[in-house]
Design a protein that fits this description.
alpha+beta; Glutaredoxin; Antioxidant, Horf6, Chain A, domain 2; three-stranded antiparallel beta sheet
């Protein structure tokens, strides 16, 4: 694995994702270059043959087609060798009847985990459970961390991806628990105006378009699609 960035440490939201050359169960890959034009989600695991990680791999695979429908590829990572990854996925197929079809990065040396800031003080040599959502331009759009004891909510990762894509496509923000907000359903939020003139224009726009406006700074509308 080579890291062509000048600095190590986890990428922040809005940062270009580090350029990495990795070995995977699907062969060598260049990240993010091999995923140009697609979103990808990279998620790390402390090690193969661990129970929480196994349930997460099954959860991601069972929703893989839903991610692919959103032009998104999945990439797993674990601090073990490719041969161990292959044996682990064989076990999952045989015992849980789920064939893992996304690539898994081999990171026995821990270089990738260190480059992405996934080894935290006090956690030993294994990675925390990290999730990076990266857009088609290779920009890091969301970062999630979970402790080793708690499995990820895969549906929340999928929801976050859909929300990010909706925000990009429609130029809007999304309420809490979108698209199933308890008060507003799947409606989206318009960005607050930044000037007095824009605030007055927003009020007029809301009246004209029939938006659900509680105030000039809190206005909702139906999704475009």
């Amino acid at each position: 694995m080579t890291d062509e960035s000048d600095e190590s440490g986890f990428p922040l939201i809005g940062d270009q994702f580090p350029e990495l050359e990795v070995e995977t169960t699907h062969g060598p890959k260049s990240i993010p270059d091999d995923y140009e034009g697609k979103w990808f989600i990279l998620f790390s695991h402390p090690g193969d043959f661990t129970p929480v990680c196994t349930t997460e791999f099954v959860g991601f695979e069972q929703r893989r087609e839903a991610f692919e429908e959103l032009n998104t590829e999945l990439i797993g990572l674990s601090i073990d060798r490719v041969h161990s990854h292959i044996k682990w996925t064989e076990w999952i197929d045989e015992e849980i009847d789920e064939k893992i079809d996304f690539p898994i990065i081999a990171d026995e040396s821990g270089d990738v985990a260190n480059a992405l800031g996934m080894v935290h003080p006090g956690q030993g040599s294994s990675t925390v459970r990290a999730v990076f959502i990266v857009d088609p331009d290779g920009i890091t759009r969301q970062v999630l961390y979970y402790p080793k004891e708690i499995g990820r909510n895969v549906d929340e990762v999928l929801r976050s991806l859909e929300a990010l894509q909706t925000s990009d496509q429609e130029g809007v923000a999304l309420p809490a628990n979108w698209p199933e907000n308890e008060n507003f359903g799947d409606k989206v939020l318009l960005s607050p105006p930044g000037t007095v003139d824009e605030a007055e224009a927003r009020t007029a726009e809301a009246d004209e378009e029939g938006y659900e406006s509680y105030d000039w700074w809190f206005t909702l509308k139906e999704r475009e699609s």
